Amino acid sequence: MKKLKTRKRYRLVFVNDNTLNTVWTMHLTRARVWGLTALCVAAIAALVVCVVVWSPVSYLLPGYMRPEQRRTTVDNTLRIDSMLLAAEEQNAYLANIVGLLCNPDSLESFTPEPPAETGDTLMTATPNERAFVESWMERERGTLSVLSPIVAEGMMFRSPTVGATLGGDSESELRVGRAAPVVAIQDGIVIDVRTEAATGLSVVTVQHSNDFISITGGLAQPAVTPGRRILAGQTLGRAADNGLITLAVWHQGRLQPLAPLLKLGQ
Q1: pLDDT confidence of 114, banded at 50, 70, 90?
Q2: DSSP of 172-206, one letter per residue?
């Protein structure tokens, strides 16, 4: 096998073609040529790395993001994860509500949680405390049972006048301002306007959607006529000088309580 001569010296001469004078002479060996070549390659590689890392040229490379873009991407990813989790919880909540509305009978078996106990937990509840908790639970179940058909029908009612409160001689009487304008509690069609002979005041009956009927009495000056279509908030007339009107809301032959229906105060 022929031995590779790495230390054999060679001479590289640069000559001027016009004067034939020697311009530069180099004495090289094969080992030196290989070393110089490796050094040049390493220098070029180091230069490329420095340019990519410490210069804006790196931003032009495909797949290489700026620090601000990377932070924004990470923040957006975390927010999307949080939004997906919140959306799943909201969908589960809405699914439970739809299940309750589609099956109103399940509301009867609903048992609300009692108020949180305060004070020393080692002390036994007094009879008054137990009676209060039982009455509170019965009231909550009653409210759900009363409002379940209204919620299921998607009906929302408004107060017949600003500042109306319960407080008359019967559950259907409302206290309003003297000669206050009385409006419709929901969209509908006026089916009857009559005047009571005993009091001389008018009574307006309105047919609403989903089998709801409202009967508003105690109006001194009715402003609607039978057969007229009205919108929620449209004036039916004015209250009498005594500041009392009557309002009855019926749904499929059942009289609905006004306090939870219209969210009126006492």
Answers
A1: low
A2: TEEE--TT-EEE-SSSEEEEEEEE-TTT--EEEEE
